[in-house]
Fold:
Amino acid sequence: MRQHYRREPELGDTPIESLKIPTKSRDELPPVLRALQYIYCTPELKDAIFSLLEKKITMTDIGTPGMSLWEILIIGVVRLTLDANYDRLEHIVNYDELVRGMLGIQKFGGEKKEYGVQTLRDNVYLLDETILKEINELLVEHGHAIKKKDNSEKGETESLAIKIDSYAVESNVHFPTDYNLLWDSVRKSLALTKQILEGHRDIQGWRKIGHWEKTMRNLFEQVRRSSHRGGVKKKTKLKSATRKYIHAAEDLYAKLMMFRGSVNDPMVSWKEWDYYVSMLAKHIDLTSRRILREEVIPHEEKVFSIFEPYTEWISKGKANRQVELGVKVAIATDQDGFILRHVVMLKQQDVDITVSLAKELLAKYSIDSISFDKGFWSKDNFEELQQPDVHIVLPKKGKQTKVEYEREHAPEFKKLRRRHSEVESNINALEHHGVNRCPDRGLIGFRRYVALGVLAYNLHKLGNLLLERDRNQKRAAA
Structure:
């Protein structure tokens, strides 16, 4: 089992609970470090978080102890707090004294501990979306406890006013066309074939594999230029270039399938190779149908990235960004700005998650109101969400009946609907914590990245509460 944290302090160490966190800095990092310090100094919260991390992260297979759970949590959170890539993260954890103090690394004496980029990447990847969601719930509970104490002193209510909205988190992909996705499939198929050929030099017929790559690249460029240029003969030139491109791709596909049958080595893993060659065949068909036969390709047949196949084409009608490539994420925030829940909406729309998300929140929290925008409306959703003691703000799409008009123009409804716009500020803050474009690979990496971003966001909110309390205590002492 991994250590929770480094247990034996060394000469010159400053205990984590004694670290001085700047109280007036406007940077994102100090509030998050203050919240992490709070976790470390709150035994019941710290033990609960470590017990969750132990479920997922164990000793490495080779028997080495690896990073402590505390280090992994901090490094993952710092990355999303600053929206940093791993190169910048390496610099921060190796040279930022406050972060290193929070990691429990001695400042004086001994050999300086440093982290490599691959070490950081491998350990952060051990975190899991489910565990991060549970940790987030624990943080929100403690944040509410702090606010409850403040609100009780002010005589304010403890019930939550929840706002739910969704936005698009982009995948790290280029803009897709069928012919550039075909080129992606070609180059990946050839690259993987090269790797296999290095261990099977007796296989004939691939001496000019580099020529294949160069030829396909040139044909792709011809199609791309024909597509982008205008002129009266644009369609004729585009079809001519595409026809040559597809014929060469079909010849390459046939050669690759012959290669697949000529290698009988059981040690060769074909899973990745088979995937990219299947994408090659798919995009030969799609390119031929769209350009040569001028068919309209059904949306469900399209793939928007061969590297991140979960990517969706999202059009929310924004003036500055008409199309986004990624996955929609729904968040539920309260009046204090904490994100209570988030949902990665894979192949889902707002209307599909309205009831399930609202009922999950109603079962967990004491709620005064839940507000949505029109995208979440359906008649069934509205009827199913009616609660005697909860204000449901769910505006109707389209024309309203007299009863619906009166409901949506009631003073309480109008007040809560105006306050619903606060969620846009929460989304903007979440995007500043890196959850606007995911650089991690795969759907699992996407889910982990979003969950880490939500955790960093809530730590920032909690840290701001704690820093405000620290400032008040200093003023009272003065």
Observations:
- The two ends are 47 Å apart (CA to CA).
- The chain has three domains: 16-127, 158-173+311-443, 178-301.
